[in-house]
Design goal:
This protein is α/β, with parallel strands linked by helices. The chain has one domain: Glucose Oxidase, domain 3 (2-Layer Sandwich), CATH 3.30.560.10. About 30% of the residues lie in helices and about 20% in strands. The strands form six sheets. Strands 1, 2, 3, 11, 12, 13, 14 and 25 form an eight-stranded mixed β-sheet that branches. Strands 8, 17, 18, 19, 20, 23 and 24 form a seven-stranded antiparallel β-sheet that branches. The protein has a four-stranded mixed β-sheet with strand order 6-7-9-10. α2 packs parallel to α20, α6 packs across α20 and α15 runs antiparallel to α17. The radius of gyration is 23 Å and the shape is globular.
Length: about 625
């Protein structure tokens, strides 16, 4: 049995951990003491909503209300302690802090439905996720600008990546041990989110990195500078020293919650936007909300703007319930059209993954040993609570690899040629609107053009102590989000349409083969890996395809369902994030992404929201 005393005590200065996050001030329980009107009303208290609320309320002359369906977390260990969120115990997924919804059953997944954890809590997904703070490559964001969004390329977003974070470099000995370098010029020193490295890395990660190097994979100095290609280290949204989660709630709300001009209404769901069309364009004059389906609906007025930050699965729902969306679809539900905007709820994308799990033979500390041995786990937890170190100080793996197709496949030309020969509309849903199809055609042309490029990653390979996770970054398949009825408390239909485009499956099959290849390198075979899942019975392409269909799951990055693109391309917002046809309704969450970047999206959502706040305040224009 591995010894804790040798491997865990990568000791930071002794600290006293206080895991419960106190709250006080202007939080409004239910709707007691709510004002009748505010300058800005923000729908959703997740990552983007809290960022924008914080920045707008810096001006004491304006009033801001955030309405959130969930409640404040109580600082539970399963939220605050990174190791628990990685699987060393019950994490927040599936609890009251999760909407507990699923994608609809998919024929391409053998009629499986896939659970979709999304935060129903102040702080949103930053309460549930594994805290990774990586960024996409330059090409990922430059694609956004190419689709008609001036100012939304990497150069336009970098100042906001920097603005959102306070970066803590690794200690010199830690950096030397793990080969971590950083470029200070692309990191922030005064942002609200603590971005730092955990004081512990599972020892077998060295074998993984050496395997990648032996396979010719690049190791960039600092992927945060737009060179997120190859194998590299990522920071976490981690409070340094104490090694606790730095959620959006902790970072952007708790730090300013005593501002008298900022109110947070919890436990209430926005049921509809109140709009006025008498002036020609549509003005959002306020919102309606209720605590549950049996409660009375109440309203509040917005003097300046209504800002949607409900996330990619709920922002389209609010718009559609308010008569903003496809007029023909809304008519089928008896909803009068306020703005005919077919792109609402379309273009939905999500990163999807399968895993190859290996047991490894090591005398060092391993995740598997901790998971299987309660005594060892308890000892590790005691070390963490005393010092903020050891396996509980990390959310799992901070070793990532984002690879172009040519890095992991010998079938690049075959897959690229096949994808290019499809025709852009071949695998879209039959009822896709012509404008949405035009927008997809523009994306499809970019995706196929870049499929064989070495400047953008198609697949992510995450290592976690023997397990290799394979995640598709740029799916060609497109899903949708549509309300099922006029009941605002009914769950919408989340149709992922994963693998509806066969090129996606082809890429994942190639990635699966490469994932196995990693474990056959001499650097990895010293760990005597044994594939526990799916195992040696899965060998042929057909068997791999079946395994993928039966196990594909979400990496929890739903996005793109209210895309920032020209209206004639199925766009929902312009480059200033205004909903087309409105004068004062904006969207600031991940639903505005036109295409998914190859990254875990939390840091991108922070940057988008920071930029959105500047646009709203007039400090920036696009």
């Amino acid at each position: 049995m591995p010894s804790l005393s040798r491997s865990f005590l990568l000791v930071a200065p002794l600290v006293s951990l206080s895991l419960a996050a106190p709250f006080y001030g202007r939080v409004i329980g239910r709707d007691a003491n709510i004002s009748t009107s505010y300058d800005y009303v923000i729908v959703g208290g997740g990552v983007s909503g809290l960022v924008v609320a914080n920045r707008l309320s810096e001006d004491s002359a304006v009033t801001v209300l955030v309405v959130e369906a969930g409640e404040l977390d109580a600082g539970e260990d399963f939220i605050a302690i990174p190791g628990i969120s990685s699987g060393l115990g019950q994490n927040a997924v599936g609890t009251k802090y999760d909407w507990n919804v699923s994608y609809s059953a998919q024929s391409e997944l053998n009629n499986r439905s896939v659970q979709m954890p999304i935060g129903k809590v102040v702080g949103g997904g930053s309460i549930l996720n594994r805290m990774l703070m990586d960024r996409g490559s330059k090409a990922d964001y430059d694609r956004w600008a190419e689709l008609g969004n001036v100012g939304w390329d990497f150069a336009g977003l970098l100042p906001y990546f920097i603005k959102s974070e306070t970066f803590t470099p690794p200690a010199a000995d830690f950096a030397a041990e793990w080969g971590i370098e950083h470029d200070a010029s692309v990191h922030g020193t005064s942002g609200y989110v603590n971005s730092s490295y955990p004081p512990f890395v599972y020892p077998s990660t060295k074998n993984y990195f050496e395997s990648m190097k032996s396979l010719g994979i690049n190791v960039p100095k600092d992927a945060a500078n737009g060179e997120a290609l190859g194998a590299f280290w990522s920071t976490l949204a981690l409070n340094p020293g104490v090694s606790t989660r730095c959620s959006a709630r902790v970072a952007y709300h708790d730090t300013v919650e005593t501002r008298s001009n900022l109110h947070l209404l919890t436990g209430n769901q926005v049921t509809k936007l109140v709009t006025d069309s008498t002036s020609g364009s549509v003005t959002a004059t306020g919102i309606e909300y209720a605590s549950d389906a049996s409660s009375a609906i109440k309203s509040v007025t917005a003097n300046k703007e209504v800002i949607l930050a409900a996330g990619s699965l709920h922002t389209p729902q609010v718009l559609q319930l308010s008569g903003i969306g496809s007029a023909s679809f809304l008519s089928s539900l008896g909803i009068s059209s306020v703005i005919d905007l077919p792109g609402v709820g379309e273009n939905h994308q999500d990163h999807q993954y399968v895993a190859i799990a290996n047991t490894i033979n090591t005398t060092e500390v391993s995740f598997n040993a901790l998971s299987a041995n309660a005594t060892l786990a308890a000892e590790a937890l005691a070390v963490y609570k005393a010092n903020g170190t050891g396996p509980y100080s990390t959310s799992g793996s901070i070793s990532l690899a984002f690879l172009p197709l040519g890095n992991y496949s010998n079938a690049t030309s075959t897959i690229t040629s096949s994808a290019g020969a499809q025709g852009a509309s071949t695998y879209l849903a039959n009822d896709t609107d012509a404008t949405v199809a035009a927008g997809y055609k523009a994306q499809y042309d970019i995706l196929v053009r870049d499929m064989d490029s070495f400047n953008i990653a198609n697949m992510e390979f995450i290592y976690s102590d023997g397990t290799v996770v394979l995640a598709l970054q740029h799916p060609l398949s497109r899903g949708s989000v549509k309300i099922a009825s006029t009941d605002p408390f009914a769950t919408p239909i989340y149709d992922s349409r994963w693998l509806s485009n066969p090129a996606d499956l082809a890429q994942i099959v190639e990635a699966f083969k490469f994932g196995r290849k990693i474990t056959t390198t001499s650097a990895f075979t010293s760990l005597s890996p044994v594939e526990a899942f799916p195992g040696s019975a899965v060998t042929t392409d057909a068997q791999i395809e079946t395994y993928i269909r039966e196990n594909l799951a979400t990496l929890f990055h739903p996005a793109c369902s209210a895309a920032m693109m020209p209206k004639e391309m199925g766009g929902v917002v312009d480059s200033n994030l205004l909903v087309y046809g409105t004068s004062n309704l904006r969207i600031v969450d991940a639903s505005i992404f036109p295409m998914l970047p190859a990254t875990h999206i939390m840091s991108t959502v922070y940057a988008v929201a920071e930029k959105a706040a500047d646009i709203i305040r007039g400090a920036a224009t696009c």
